[in-house]
Design brief:
Elements lengths: L6 H10 L6 E2 L11 H10 L16 H11 L6 E4 L1 H15 L5 E6 L4 H8 L3 E6 L8 H7 L4 E7 L11 H13 L3 E5 L22 E6 L12 E4 L5 H12 L4 H13 L2 H24 L3 E2 L7 E5 L7 H11 L1 E2 L1 E2 L11 E4 L5 H11 L2
Parallel strand pairs: 1-11, 3-4, 3-5, 5-6, 6-7
Antiparallel strand pairs: 2-8, 7-8, 9-10, 10-13, 12-13
Length: about 375
C-alpha cells in the first residue's frame, strides 16, 4: 500500500524555495510564547538524575495521567499519553476498527486530511458527511449515513479547517448515534482552549462507553514540537490501545511530559484568555481585509483558521503556488480538505504578520 504525503508538506517546501519573502499561513504552529512554567520545567529537567532520562512508563507518567484525569473527570487508568493528538487519533481509530463492528469511518466534509489518511492506513473505508457553509454538522445527516458497517464517527471541534464549534446538543446526538450503531465517537478536541464562542462542548460531558476523546498540548501551550497528547478511552478499550502505543512508539518524551505537568499546575488561566484575545483581533483584521478584497469567508468560532473564496480563483495547489509567487502569502488549497471546499483557500492566523498578509491579499485580488 502506498501513502500520499499530505499537501501541507508540498506547500511548505514550495514556499521555502520561493525567491521572495513569503508569509507562512499554512500550518497551525502558534507564534506566541509557551507558558513560562513549561520553559522552567524543561530547564529543571536538564539537571535531574540520569535515571530520569530513561524510558518512562509506556502509558505516560503517572502524575501527568492523574492530573489529566482529575481535570477531565475520568480514571487515570483510562488515560494514555501519546505523541501528540496525531497518535491519539490513530490509537482511537484503530481501536474502533479492531472491534470487528464494520470497517467504515464516518468523516466530515470538509475534513482535516490526516483523518482520511489514517483511515486508509488502518484498512478502513471512508464515508463523508457534508457540513454546512459555516462548517456546522447536522447529526441527522450523520444518523442517515450510519449503518451496521460504521466503526467510528470522527469529529473535530473546534474545527480545522472551518472554525466551527459544535454545541452541546450536537455532541449529545453524536454520542447517541454511536451508541445506537455500536460505533465509537472519536472526538478530537485539540483546539478546546480556542473556543471563541463559548459554545464548545466536550464528549466527556456524556457518560458513554462509545466515545474516545483525544487532545494535546501542542496548540494550547504553543508547543507543537514537544509532542505530548493524550487519549481517554472507555475502560474496556484501553488495554489494547496501550499495547499498540507501546509497539508503535514505546513511550512519549519524558522531559516533555514533565514540563507539561509543571505548566498545567502553574499556568494561570489568563495565559489562555490572552491568546484567545489575540486571535479575536487577528480574525477581525484578516476578515476586514477579505471584505476589502471582495472575498467570501468563514468567521471562525474556534480554532485559528479562516477559509476564503476569491471569485474565479479556485482552491487548487496550482493557485496556492501562484499566490506564493505573486502575492507572497502561503495558504492551503481547499481541495486538501475534501470535495466541498475545492473553491476555497485556508489560512492559519498564527503569524504576527496577519495584517501584512491581509494587505497583500487585498491588493492582489483588488
Amino acid at each position: 500500500m502506498e501513502y500520499e504525503t499530505p499537501l501541507f508538506f508540498h506547500v511548505m517546501q514550495y514556499a521555502d524555495r520561493a525567491d521572495r519573502d513569503v508569509i507562512d499561513m499554512v500550518s497551525g504552529n502558534p507564534d506566541w510564547e509557551p507558558p513560562q512554567a513549561l520553559r522552567d520545567g524543561l530547564r529543571e529537567y536538564a539537571d535531574l538524575e540520569p535515571d530520569q532520562f530513561q524510558y518512562p512508563p509506556s502509558e505516560g507518567l503517572l502524575e501527568l495521567r492523574e492530573e489529566i484525569a482529575a481535570r477531565r473527570g475520568v480514571d487515570a487508568e483510562q488515560v494514555v499519553i501519546t505523541n501528540g493528538a496525531g497518535e491519539a487519533n490513530y490509537l482511537a481509530m484503530a481501536r474502533a476498527l479492531e472491534r470487528d463492528r464494520g470497517d467504515e469511518i464516518i468523516l466530515t466534509d470538509p475534513v482535516y486530511p490526516y483523518y482520511p489518511g489514517k483511515t486508509t492506513m488502518l484498512g478502513g473505508t471512508q464515508r463523508f458527511v457534508a457540513a454546512d457553509d459555516e462548517g456546522r454538522l447536522d447529526p441527522a445527516d450523520v444518523r442517515e449515513a450510519a449503518s451496521e458497517e460504521t466503526a467510528a464517527i470522527v469529529v473535530n471541534s473546534p474545527n480545522n479547517p472551518t472554525g466551527a464549534v459544535y454545541p452541546e446538543e450536537t455532541i449529545r446526538e453524536l454520542v447517541a448515534i454511536a451508541e445506537e450503531y455500536d460505533a465509537i465517537l472519536v472526538s478530537d478536541e485539540v483546539y478546546d482552549h480556542f473556543d471563541l464562542s463559548g459554545e464548545f462542548s466536550s464528549a466527556l460531558e456524556f457518560d458513554s462507553d462509545h466515545r474516545i476523546v483525544t487532545n494535546a498540548y501542542s496548540k494550547s501551550m504553543a508547543i507543537t514540537g514537544v509532542r505530548v497528547g493524550y487519549a481517554i478511552f472507555p475502560p474496556h478499550l484501553v488495554e489494547n490501545a496501550k499495547s499498540r502505543h507501546m509497539l508503535v512508539n514505546v513511550a512519549t518524551t519524558r522531559p516533555g511530559q514533565y514540563a507539561v505537568l509543571e505548566a498545567l499546575r502553574e499556568t494561570d488561566p489568563d495565559y489562555y484568555e490572552e491568546n484567545r484575545d489575540l486571535l479575536r483581533k487577528r480574525v477581525a483584521t484578516f476578515t476586514d481585509a477579505l471584505d476589502a478584497a471582495g472575498a467570501e469567508y468563514t468567521t471562525p468560532k474556534g480554532s485559528f483558521y479562516v477559509m476564503a473564496r476569491f471569485d474565479g480563483y479556485p482552491g487548487t495547489l496550482e493557485n496556492v503556488k501562484r499566490l506564493i509567487d505573486e502575492a507572497g502569502v502561503a495558504g492551503m488549497p481547499g481541495e486538501a480538505f475534501g470535495d466541498s471546499r475545492t473553491e476555497w483557500l485556508r489560512f492559519a492566523l498564527v503569524t504576527p504578520r496577519v495584517e501584512e498578509a491581509a494587505e497583500r491579499l487585498a491588493a492582489y485580488f483588488d
